[in-house]
Amino acid sequence: MIISQCVQVVKPPKKLTVSEWADTYRQLSSEASAESGKWRTIRAEYQRGIMDAFSDPDIHTVVWMSSAQVGKTEALLNIIGYFVDQDPSPMLLLQPTLDMAQAFSKDRLAPMTRDTKVLTHKIKDSKAKDSGNTILHKSFAGGHITMAGANSPASLASRPVRVVLCDEVDRYPPSAGSEGDPVNLAFKRSTTFWNKKRMLTSTPTIKDISRIEAAYEDSDKRKFNVPCPECGKKQVLKWSNVSWDENNPETAKYFCEHCGAGWDDSSRWRAVSKGEWIAEAPSNGVAGFWLNEIYSPWVKLSDMAKAFLEAKKSQHTLKTFVNTSLGETWEDDQGEQIEDNVLMNNREDYTVLPTDAVVLTCGVDTQDDRLEGEVKAWGDGNESWGVFPFRIEGKPSQKQVWEDLDNIINDTYKRIDGVELRISCTCIDSGGHFTDEVYKYCKKRAVKRVFAIKGSSIAGKPIVSRPTTSNKLKVKLFTVGTDTAKELIFSRLQLEEFGEGFMHFNKKFDEEYFKMLTSEKLVTTFKKGRPVRIWKPTRPRNEALDYTVYNLAALAILNPNYKKIQENMKPQKVEAQQRTKQVQRPKKGWANSWK
Questions:
Q1: In CATH, what number does 17-324 get?
Q2: What confidence tens digit (pLDDT) does each residue in 71-96 have?
Q3: Where do the DSSP E strands lie in 306-419?
């Protein structure tokens, strides 16, 4: 009896899988999770196989290609918690940017270590004295975790790590500075470990360009098969099997591809809890997992149906739905180009702005001997109306050039109901040879939201990033994701129905404008062996495309609430109509026909 008790005391604890560890210890934090409290893997049963792949000695790499809303981040946190508590190791978590790595540490990792008690005493808060921890680096007995950005070469050239977790890899830049592919750089740090574990996760992007798609295709390609509640036959859940009554997405159901039985949300969630992962290719040490939003216990089919109906209004929003809801890559027609003559022929006869126009922006391209730009009006759903393009001759070093631009920015532009609009935000290109002149002009007019911008062609970069003031004049400088903006512009130029995103042009826009607007096309090329998408010029001049990008940037900076602005215009509308009836007077300006 005594010997038996002694054996129990010295006996090592049972080795848990990642899912068993999470079910035993993990606590979901209220500020970081939709459902706080004790973790239950059964809530999203498909997560079990993904997490437990890290406990399988025959698997060295896990690939998770999926939609959003499937619990990826929480599963990733469980994996980190498991290695901290059960199998201490040096780890690297790679996010697309350093800012995202910091946000993950503060908003997700810190709450988990605080609320999951087996971790609290192992990872100290970065604010604690003598903790040896920072926001991006956490030490614990037997290991550490470093959180880094794929855009930072320095963060990828550090000490060896056993566990490498690469999150949202399709949002990584093609190269970490001049060092090469960030995924390869991260993986190299684990090569000396015989028991290394690697993970790639992401929502996919463009077919044949997507990192996560390529990694999944090189895996054993597992899919989660779900039994039908009626006939019991297993199947992979597909969007083509979701259907609803015409004009009534609330009736959306999933229909079995074998017997045709309709599943409501409750039946679907119960069926998913009984599913299993089935590989479609031989095992090679790389376990691949694919999921879409239909599997998610946090998403209703009616909400997906509504999102689809809204998304299919434009190619840009439909692409987002395919990527983030269906977990599939988007197939582009490579090199497809919009014909300038089609846009030219579709010009409209409006001479004053419609009542739907609520906000005005201005985009300005800086050349060595002139300024070129456009005033654009915007309304609900980011529908836009070209007001007029302009060209100001003269070197930007000349005072008169900027005074002429003042005339445009300070002028008023009438709607058909008499309401007068002013330009709310202006973005001016600071590249080229007249950067100082642009900075000086913008600094004096910052109160009017006149901002300097510079373009960045890094794939996936947002249309506008946070401004910096790290220049000698301390001027706010916004970085513009030109590739992202151009994709949005070209998707909107293909719209055929008025409404959300549609771009209107009047007869002030001539043939040369449309040639410049359509002067580039998106093509696939290879850099250092990797396929990348780049915008390739097809004509020598592209100013109209550039200042359309800058107008988009100005709108993104404003982020207007169209409905609220329109409501606030109502009193002004009445006054404007009365004033118009009383007196008609000529006004000076750059667009007199708008008066």
A1: 3.40.50.300
A2: 999 999 999 999 999 999 999 999 99
A3: 359-367, 370-379, 383-393, 412-414
